[in-house]
Amino acid sequence: MAKVTDTYGLSNGKTVVLCDCTPPRSGDPAAVDRVGVLSADYICVAYNPGKLARADSVAAAYTIKERTGKDVIFNLATRDMNKIAMQSRLLGAQMMGLENVVVLGGDRFTEAEAERVKAVDDFTPTGLVGAIAAMNDGQDYRGTNLRGNSEFCIGATLDLERDIEREVRLAHRKVEAGAHYLIVQPMYDLILRQRFLDAYEQHVGEPLTLPVFWGLQVLDKDGIVLGNVPPKMRQELDGGKPGSEIASELLQSYLEAGVRGIYLVPPILRGGARDYEVAQQVLESV
Asked: How many other β-carbons are positioned within 10 Å of the β-carbon of residue 128?
């Protein structure tokens, strides 16, 4: 299976697309077949979106790879497992031939949810990035030697609709910890991208050279929205303009700005279902 950084580095300037995918609330392997319509370079399997019990992201990514032949990425959140469980999960992924991982914290539990389930957070996301980098050097969380090195390609996440300066510092810490690529949550204004890149260069003293996959969500009028949609775009959507058309226009602006990495989020319908067919229409439009 190709590593994300290798595909990006060998793309000869072509755009590389990671497409988000929700694992099913089912153990039926056929439940993942719907993502087969996507022509993205990688299917990026989310980790328990909606804070619901879903097929494990590692197992779902492996099943997608086996059933569709597509390259995959699995997400791993620090919220739910201690250090032993986390690194055991990663060694299991290595056995399955999965090399691409994205590290995140996971959505926080509300007070009501916390009465039913507890967060663990044994690692911070940056700490887990560093721990996986150490596994690549053959050491576990205690500094004890493993029986061989892992070869994970490590991704980390950012959200530029929060404080830019904070995200710059966070990005730098994740890069120093060993991240190989970054994924940015959906945004709707490319000015954020340039502000972040400029602020990063000023903070670090040199440009950000890692591959970055900039988030773009395909909106649905009655669906779940990630990030802050501009009022004009919201009006167009409410007025009947298809979300696929809005996303295609936004994607075209990304490409014209020289963006080479795209993190595409298909429409999220009420209940958490995804519309992969519409996401594929956006990919085909450009």
From this structure: 27
